[in-house]
Amino acid sequence: MRRDTHHPDTPAYHRVFVPAHCYNRGFSMSSSVTGQDATGASAPSLPLSERVPRSRVILASLVGTTIEFYDFYVYATAAVAVFPALFFTGEDETAKLLASMATFAAAFVARPIGSVIFGHFGDRIGRKATLIGALLTMGIATFLIGLLPTYYAIGLWAPLILTILRFCQGLGLGGEWSGAALLATEYAEEGKRARAAMWPQLGAPFGFILANGFFLLLTIVMGFVSVAEQGTDHPFLTWGWRVPFLASVVMVVVGLYVRFKLEETPVFQKALDQGEKVRTPLVEAFRGSWLQMIQGTFIMLATYMLFYLMTAWILSYGIGSPANGGLGIPYRDFLVLQLLAVLLFAAMVPVSGWVADRFGRRSSQLVITSVILLFGLSFGLLMDPAAVGTGEDVSTARVLFFLTIGMTLMGLTFGSMSAILPELFPTNVRYTGSGVAYNTASILGAAITPYVAVTLNASYGVGSVGLYLAFGAVLTLVALWFSPETKDVDMANVVTRR
C-alpha cells in the first residue's frame, strides 16, 4: 500500500481514498480501493473479496455471543430445574439448590481468569484468533456436560466433573464478551459506536430465548412438569435434559465458520503497524489503566445483579415450594413468563445503544441505574407471596409485570455496556482491560447473587433481595458519577503510557 507522504500521521487504513459506500460497509486492513488520494494520484485497488462488509462483522459478533450465552444459560436453567435432583443428594431441597447454585457460580470465578488468558492473546496476536479459541473452549465444555453421568452413576465424581466443566464454560465466556465487543466497536463509525456495539449484546437475550425455549419445548413434548410430581425416573431427567447441551455443537460449528471469514480489526492493525503491541497486556493494564478497571467493574455491577436476579434466582423463587418461601408456579408456566419478558430485554438493547449515542454513556446510565435502584425497593411490594399469591392462587399477571420491568431495565442498562467498557481503555490493552473489568464484575454481581438471594429470601423474605439489588445500584451510581464521558473517545489513537 502506498503511503501518503503529506500526512505521515494518518492511520494506515485511512491513507487511501475510500468511496463513501465502501467505507460504510467496512474493509480489511490488507485491502485497498481503486480511487484517488488528495494529490489526484491513483491509489491501489481493493479486490471485492478483501472487503469486510459490516454485515459480516455484525454476524460474527452476534452469532458468537449468542452461542456463548446459550451455552451459559442452558446450564443456568438446568442448575435450577435438573441438577439439584441428579447431581446432589439429601432431603433438604434448599440445601441441594444452594449446592447447585455453587457450581453455577464456579463459572464466574473462572471468567476473570479467562479474560486474562484470552485478553493476553487478544492484545498480542489479535481479536480474530482469540475469539475462535474462546468459542471452542465454551463449546467443548458444554458438549461434555451433555455426556456427563449423574451422581447415581459415578457418585461424587459427577458434581466434581460438573464443576470443572462449568469452570471451563466460564473461561470461554470470559474471553468471548470483550473480544466480540471490540470486534463491533473497533469497526464502528464515529458517532455510532454504541449502536454498533449493541449487536454482541443482543447475544444475551437471544441466547436466553434459545436455551429456555429449547427446555420449554422439551418439557412440553416429553410431558415433564416437575421433579416433585414425577420423580427422577422421568425420560426428561433420564436423557431429555442432555439434548440442549449436545445440540450446542451445531451452533459452535456455524460460529466458527463465520469467524474464520473475518479479518483483523483496523484499530488493532493500526496498533500493530505503529509498534504499540505490549509484551504483557495485563501488567500494562494494571500500570496504566488500573483506575479504569475499577470503574468498569462497578459500572457493570448493578447490570449483572439485575440480570441474574431476573433469570437464575427468580426461576428458583417462582417454581419453589411455598413451604420453602417460593411461589409454587409450575416450571413450564414460569418459563413461558420469562420468555415473554425477555423479549423486552432484546427490544431495549438497540434503544440503549441509540440513547447512549444521542445523550452520552454516563448520563444515560445514571438515569437507568437510578430506576434500577427504585425497582429494587419495590420487590416486597410486587413479589411478596402475601401480595402475589402462591400455587393455584398466584397472580401470573403480577409476576409477568414484575419480570417485564426487570427485563426492560436490563436491556436499557446492558445494551451500551459493550461501548462503555472498551472506550475506557487504550487499544493495546483494550481486550484485557475491558475483559477483566467485565468479568470481575461477574464475580461481585453475578456469581454470588443467586446464592445470596436464595439465602436472603429464606431468612428475611423477598423484600430483602430487592434491598440487595438497590445496594448494588448505589455502588454503580458512585462509579458512574466519578467516571468520564467516553462518547467522543478516539478508539484508534489512545495508547497507554510507554
From TrEMBL:
Membrane topology: Multi-pass membrane protein
Keywords: Cell membrane, Membrane, Transmembrane, Transmembrane helix, Transport
Classification via InterPro entries: MFS (IPR011701), MFS_dom (IPR020846), MFS_trans_sf (IPR036259), Sugar_transporter_CS (IPR005829)
Domain of life: Bacteria
Subcellular location(s) per record: Cell membrane
Domain Major facilitator superfamily (MFS) profile: 57-487
Transmembrane residue ranges: 57-85, 97-119, 131-154, 160-185, 206-227, 239-260, 297-315, 335-355, 367-388, 400-424, 436-454, 460-482
Protein name per Swiss-Prot or TrEMBL: MFS transporter
Organism ancestry: Bacteria, Bacillati, Actinomycetota, Actinomycetes, Micrococcales
